[in-house]
Design a protein that fits this description.
- The chain has 2 domains: 2-223, HIT-like (HIT family, subunit A), CATH 3.30.428; 228-383, HIT-like (HIT family, subunit A, 2-Layer Sandwich), CATH 3.30.428.10.
- It is an alpha+beta fold.
- It has helices at 127-139, 171-189, 226-238, 242-251, 293-311, 357-362, 371-383, and strands spanning 15-19, 25-29, 55-58, 65-68, 103-107, 146-148, 152-157, 196-203, 215-221, 256-259, 263-266, 275-281, 320-325, 339-344, 346-348, 351-352.
- Helices cover 24% and strands 20% of the residues.
- β11 and β12 form a beta hairpin.
- It contains 7 helices and 16 strands.
- An 11-stranded antiparallel β-sheet has the order 1-2-5-7-9-8-13-14-12-11-10, with helices on both faces.
- It is an enzyme of class 2 (transferase).
- It catalyses: alpha-D-galactose 1-phosphate + UDP-alpha-D-glucose = alpha-D-glucose 1-phosphate + UDP-alpha-D-galactose.
- Keywords: Carbohydrate metabolism, Galactose metabolism, Metal-binding, Nucleotidyltransferase, Transferase, Zinc.
- Belongs to the galactose-1-phosphate uridylyltransferase type 1 family.
């Protein structure tokens, strides 16, 4: 059963599919050492129909697209623990997930993109031509341009516990989540109209997190994101070896935090945020689906050490965004390397960096902490982590 699943490499991790009451897809990923039975409960709730696909509008001054997703106004905001929408369902808590679980992935009830998909040919019938045409269309610039916000938004629950983050999970659970990320990256990349797949975790109220439950999200965009477009422009200006050359230089420098067989973590040369870390594979890999079993095994430990080290900087947990930047689905697969970029506005135990005029209005950043000093503090914190 497991070997036919897209992107799945560990045969010990079972994938069990289900459907929520309004038709949304729900997928359970069982740990390699799970104690759960294979059966899963049925979602018997009476739910309203899913919202219509949102609309995205183009800013003609930048060429960027903005999704206008009004349904997100109704999403849950900081509920009490007994009303946790990501915990397993009980009579008192009619949540999104009917059964207890190890890791669960489901379609977002109030998505920014989707639930509709583009009207493209199937993945084996003219998809390359359709992708090229769609990319050209979304990159064109005009005034008053509107398009449907096609795509998919999913929620990835790391645990049935009410509170925590990726960094609070076991090594076995971390490995299951990584397998789920790879599985979903592979599956979402096959959907019509999807141009880029983005797994991420927001952690902390300071970041804007509305649910303390340990979880992340995956967005499947109908365009290549602005940050990646900037990277593509830099690759065009420098050459296709840009990210490989950056990694080679960083690995021989003073900002390296972890140097493992398959992965390297470092504070970048021109860090924007008080805490900024890049975690990259040592060989060229375009996305998580392309990683090997050995790379995923090592990542489960390296990533936990990194996140727990970040939390050892101060006496309280550090807010962050952990963003898995992956290559576009249909282009530059040999040029863009998978990179996890962790950023935090925390610049001291009791201080946050707020984006002021230069950063927020002009995109011209001013760093508050020298990257070398932050790398030294992070190395010390990571050395104290024991998995």
């Amino acid at each position: 059963m497991h070997q036919t699943e897209p992107g799945l490499l560990d045969p010990r991790i079972a994938v069990r599919r289900s459907t929520l009451a309004d038709g949304r897809e729900l997928i359970y990923f069982d740990d390699a050492d799970t104690t759960l039975p294979p059966e899963r409960a049925i979602d018997a709730r009476a739910l309203d129909p899913r919202p219509a696909v949102a609309e995205m509008r183009q800013d003609p001054l930048t060429g960027e697209w903005v999704s206008i997703a009004a349904a997100r106004q109704n999403r849950v905001f900081l509920p009490p623990a007994d009303a946790d929408p990501l915990a397993p369902q009980t009579e008192a808590n009619p949540s999104e997930i009917p059964s207890t679980y190890d890791v669960a992935v489901f379609e977002n009830r109030s998505p920014s993109f989707g639930p509709d998909l583009a009207d493209w040919p199937g993945s084996t019938d003219g998809v390359a031509d359709a992708a090229a045409s769609a990319l050209a269309d979304v990159r064109a610039v005009g005034i008053g341009r509107r398009l449907p916000s096609h795509g998919r938004c999913e929620v990835v629950c790391f645990s049935p516990e009410h509170e925590g983050s990726f960094g609070t999970q076991t090594v076995s659970r971390a490995r299951t989540v990584i397998e789920a990320w790879a599985h979903r990256t592979s599956a979402l990349s096959e959907l019509p109209g999807v141009q880029q797949v983005f797994p991420f975790e927001n952690r902390g109220r300071e970041i804007g997190v509305t649910l303390p439950h340990p979880h992340g999200q995956i967005y499947a965009y109908p365009y290549v994101t602005p940050r990646t477009e900037r990277l593509l422009a830099a690759i065009d200006a420098y050459g296709p070896t840009l990210q490989a050359d950056v990694l080679e230089r960083e690995r021989s420098g003073e900002r390296v935090l972890l140097a493992a067989e398959h992965w390297t973590a470092y504070v970048p040369f021109a860090a924007r945020w008080p805490i900024e870390i890049h975690l990259v594979p040592n060989r060229h890999v375009p996305d998580l689906a392309a990683t090997t079993a050995d790379e995923r095994d090592e990542l489960s430990r390296v990533y936990l050490r990194l996140l727990r080290g970040v939390d050892r900087l101060y006496d309280t947990p550090t807010p962050y965004i952990a963003a898995w930047h992956q290559a576009p689905v249909h282009e530059h697969r040999d040029d863009v390397r998978l990179t996890m970029q962790l950023t935090s506005p925390r610049r001291a135990a009791d201080r946050l960096k707020y984006l002021a005029g230069s950063e927020a209005a002009m995109g011209a950043w001013i760093g508050d902490v020298p990257p070398e000093a932050q790398a030294d503090a992070l190395r010390t914190a990571i050395e104290g982590v024991d998995l």
